[in-house]
Amino acid sequence: MSFFIHSEADLDAAIAGLVAADPRFGEVLSRAGRPPLRRRADGFAGLASIVVSQQVSTASAKAIWGRLTEAFDPLDHTAVLRARPARLARAGLSAPKIRTLKALAKAIDRSHIDLPALIDKSADEAHAALTSLHGIGPWTADIYLLFCLGHADAWPAGDLALQEATRLLLALKTRPTTKDMGPLAEAWRPWRGAAACMLWTYYRAHKQREGAPIEPTATMRR
């Protein structure tokens, strides 16, 4: 049975379950503090916003998203499906992102994907359904599962900040690869999403202690 983080109480329960599974997260909690509850809209708009944020700064993503939502009200799959690529490009979208949003809109229109129904699937099943879509990679799928659906077991293994935080927690000599991250997190099921949230907070706290600035890179926009 899947657990979802939709409220502050849900987050507290997930963190408690994680600490029980691995007491090292108790130390993370004392050092970095409790992570905030972060939620995004689900459905087409939620997934589209994650696509927009890929590989651009937080400020750029916010500006592009603002222009999109102003140009399309409501911003749904039907509007994007009908929009000319030039109109989407004027909002600041790159050609690959336009293709991704068009493919996503088409998949929804043709019932190839039912985004609301993903909440009834396990994290792995929902992840597979999302990554089967054109332009939706593992990181995008996991961020959608974690922040749009609140799936407590989503695990964005390809996130560089998360990899570095895992290295710090486990005292590894080198940063684990995306492939390494899966086995390393097995003991944290079904709370891997809560682990990710705590590790991102731990990463930021560690970098601040070192005096290094925390840059809004594509891997750290949460």
Quick description:
The protein has helices at residues 8-21, 24-32, 43-53, 58-71, 77-82, 85-90, 95-109, 123-131, 138-148, 160-170, 178-184, 192-210. The relative contact order is 0.16. The radius of gyration is 18 Å and the shape is globular.
Question: What is the element string, with H for helices and E for strands?
Answer: HHHHHHHHHHHH
Proportion of residues in β-strands: under 5%
Structural category: mainly alpha
- How many whole angstroms does the radius of gyration measure? 18 Å
Core attributes:
single chain, 222 residues, mainly alpha
Report on this model:
With 222 residues, the chain is mostly helical. It has helices at residues 8-21, 24-32, 43-53, 58-71, 77-82, 85-90, 95-109, 123-131, 138-148, 160-170, 178-184, 192-210. Helix 1 (8-21) crosses helix 12 (192-210) and helix 8 (123-131) crosses helix 9 (138-148). The chain is globular, with a radius of gyration of 18 Å.
